[in-house]
Design brief:
Layout (H helix, E strand, L loop, with lengths): L20 H11 L12 E9 L3 E8 L5 E7 L4 H16 L9 E5 L6 E5 L6 H5 L6 H20 L2 E2 L8 E3 L5 E3 L6 E2 L26 H17 L7 H8 L4 H14 L14 H10 L11 H88 L2 H10 L4 H8 L7 H17 L7 E6 L4 E5 L14 H4 L21 E2 L3 E2 L6 E10 L6 E10 H13 L7 E11 L4 E8 L5 H4 L10 H9 L2 E8 L12 E8 L5 E8 H4 L1 H9 L4 H23 L1
Antiparallel strand pairs: 1-2, 2-3, 3-5, 4-5, 6-9, 7-8, 10-11, 10-15, 12-14, 13-14, 14-15, 16-17, 16-20, 18-19, 19-20
Amino acid sequence: MNSLPEPVSETPLDGTEVQDLTAREVSQTLSLRSLQTPGAVPGYQIEQCLGEGSFGSVWLARELRTGKKVAIKFYARGRGVDWSLLSREVEKLAVLYTSRNIVRLLDVAWDHDPPYFVMEYLENGSLAQRLERGRLPIEDAVRIARVMTQALIHAHGSGVLHCDLKPANVLFDAGGDARLCDFGQSRLSSERTPSLGTLFYMAPEQAVLDGVPDARWDVYALGALLYQMLTGSPPGRSPALEAQLQRATTTEDRLATYRRLLLEIPPPQAHREIPGIDRRLIEIVDRCLERDPARRLANAQLVFELLEQRDRARSRRQVVLLALFGPILFLIAMYWMADSATSRIVKTAEENLLQRALAGEVISARILAESVNQEILNRIEELEAEAVHPDVRQYITAATALAEPELVAICSEKAPGQETLVSVVQRLNAVREKSGKRHQDRSWFLTNAQGRQIYRNPVEGGTVGSHFHHRDYFHGQGRDFPESATIGSLMPRKVSGVSAAYQSSATGQFAIAIAVPVWDESHQQVLGVLGRSLHLTDLLNPWEDQLKGEARADQRFLALAQFVEIGEQGRKRLALLDHHWMTAANMAQRTEPPYIDETQASVIQRSETERTDRYHDPIGEFDPNYQGNWLAAWSRVQNTQWIAIVQERRDIALKPIDDLKNVFVRLGSIAIGVFSAMLLAFWLLLRRLSM
């Protein structure tokens, strides 16, 4: 879109008439009062308004003969100041028609009401629109700045000073190339009439009502444009400075405030912090933005030459760096070539072997996770089958009222007069013994709706008759509560599930309880909870021997982990619940589980199924046999918070590679010969590049 100058940039209009802020606002209101088409244009079909300003508007139109889109700039009135603006801009565009970097003038109608001229339409928008998305990459900014510099060189060479270079006046054509537009504020180099640009792009000496146009105004604006492309904001702009400008009541006051503040604030520095920016480009920006015009680059030609010098210096720097670091690179290449054949082949073989091994570990981890899940489901089904038996419900009702000695006698099958209850105990005991053939449960137990244990097998342990309403297996809230919790404050679980893992006080190993609710016949309330407990080690043992194969038990094994909350702030860490090392003897003196490294724990947490060939076993802190790198794969166990881990020693898995390395030792002499050839080719190439 061909944009119009901003209000501040359009005053004064010629050398004699200066509008104050109030007059400018009235003028703008009049020009924007209607969005109707200014009038028909012979040979063109007007389609839509592209932009409006204080003295006119720009419209998109289509040439009827060719169908080509053009931009038509109408001036609001045909006499006085507006006629001067039109004639001035048309005059400059006509002079600059041959420049590829400037929007071209196609037609002009002096006698039309309102008067207008026709320009090229550039459909890819303005630089201002592009900068709304943020700053540009360095080389994109330099490329656009170079094109603007060439446009200014052509304009200055034709005796035209633009005087209002800003992002809104840089448009992009269909090929993405930048083009300079809007010469409404331009002056001939021979003119002495002032011209105001746009705040934050105007040089300090331009911000006066009697300034004499100078090529250095465009140089400053070019520097401001490049600075904004690099940093995202024009130099000097800040909320505090804009607030002071807004308090000015007239154009003259605003210009004086702008000029004073621009000279008082420190030189802009943000472009120096751009990652990857080079010293020469910083210097170009600084020299364009010199507040003192005597120290500023005199014209656009000098800016262009500095940009060209920067390009040549960057090209030479590559050759210099190549010549400087060439010998060092060759020394590195000598070492690399001597070892490359062995390293590459061995590395490829090692990666293939690791991938196959890890793929197997992933499959094993998935099978383990699914097997554990299926085992839990099977045990839940066994409990649920017993929980719906009428005798169990009757047992809960009858046993709830009994004292502890009577309950112990019933569970021991030594309770004369309680044959009915003893028969229920005998049947539950028989079911436990039958299911224990897979791997032994630690116990079976039954509580009433208040959490009081009324059955346990084995009966030893002194827990029959005690309350366990605080335990997770009873209420199913994911954690144990303090024993001091009031009886009745925690309701029995209503769905079957697995309790949170807890550390056995007897063995130090971790155990779980699988529990199901016992409902009354109408399913309106829970009568109690039937459960079974077992060590996690017992849960994994059936698959341990199948997994390790011919390897030693401490070289390939299974582990189980879970994220747990630590401390009052609830920090989560990945704790080992079961591991080959975590026997009763090793865990007897430990009050908390080993924790997996937080870096590895975060990797495990982010993925459902993953693998690594650099796993560090946390048990290595306690036992040197578990130090070093391991292959590991993990998979989450459904319906639980557990993570099943399969791990194998990395050095054991890669042992065949060590044998392969010896085969390639004799290739060292060949590598030396290859390096000699590379050295010769390198120096020949360097010689050609230096010519």
